[in-house]
Amino acid sequence: MRRFRELRVHPDLLKRIDTAAEEMGITMTALVEGLLERYLLRRDAKSRDDTDRRSFERHPIRLPGVVYVTEPDGHYGRYQPVELHDISLNGVGFRMPPNAELDMRLADAEFEVIFRLDDSNPPVRMRCRSTRNERGKGATRVGASFIGGDAASHALMERYFVQ
After folding, report:
1. Are residue 85 and residue 41 in the same domain, yes or no?
2. CATH code of the domain covering residue 71
3. 43 in the Ramachandran plot: left (φ > 0), alpha (ψ -120 to 50) or beta?
């Protein structure tokens, strides 16, 4: 490996990179190289095929999850079991049994999706907004963008995708 230029990084960002690398048990160099390599691969792939507008690569996955939707009056909510079928750093795709009332509410409102990436970590809780809602035979497929979540959930997601 040759060094061509000096890279200057803001001290706060450097500390965050160091902390993330330490948590993952890898060097800062390995973490930064991995992130940059993935970014450049995605950028190159996107320039070849501009039909996909996603910022981050979608990963196929089969995980059980739950969607929590607040009732229109805002006082109560409803949990709906779902099966996650793909995930990225900025969104998720899932299937659920068809339910006309819930389908309409998911299309118009924010909701929370809750799932576990593995058994050794706590559940991930992310606020979402539906970007796609397709009702089919036996299931409704929903694509959603993440619009919020707690810091611990974001950290779990980042760790999952960097590994």
Report:
1. no
2. 2.40.10.220
3. alpha
